[in-house]
Amino acid sequence: MVETFERIKDLALELGLAIEKEIPDEEILIVNDPDRGISQMVIDCEDTILVIEQLIFEIDSPQDTNMYRRLLEINRDLVFGAFVIDETGNRVLYRNTLVLDNLDANRLESTINALVFGLAEYGQEILSFIGEK
């Protein structure tokens, strides 16, 4: 898997992502691209898939069922990936998985662009979930 991890690093750099941190033993990259709103995006090689996660916001009021409903509705409009809740139930993440076997720069870039476009389209609404205008 070392060569797969190196290939993912090369793809990330090709796409202009700045590698903030590498965890080679776990085959994880943490990348940034402030111009596109990417901050500490986790790119994780897991066996045959690539997991991509970006923290969107922390949940202040876990009982806000309207927020969950709206996030699910927004998911329907995202081209790739989805907004998800982490295992603690306290964080909303953007998450997508890709097959490693045929991964290329276009597929990785499409995932990142789906997040960027989703945030551009729904950013104000998402900020309202955390009380910002």
Topology:
Layout: H1 2-14, E1 18-23, E2 28-33, E3 38-46, E4 49-58, H2 65-77, E5 82-85, E6 91-99, H3 105-129
Antiparallel strand pairs: 1-2, 2-3, 3-4, 4-6, 5-6
Would you give an account of this structure?
- With 133 residues, the chain is of the alpha+beta class.
- Helix content is 38%, strand content 33%.
- It has a six-stranded antiparallel beta sheet with strand order 1-2-3-4-6-5.
- It is elongated and about 45 Å long.
Q: Largest sheet, if any? A: 6 strands, antiparallel
Q: What's the CATH C level?
A: Alpha Beta
CATH T-level fold name: Yope Regulator, Chain: A
Low-confidence regions: none
Strand order of the largest sheet: 1-2-3-4-6-5
- What is the count of helical runs? 3
Which descriptor suits the 3D outline?
elongated
Helix content: 25-40%
List SSEs in N-to-C order. HEEEEHEEH
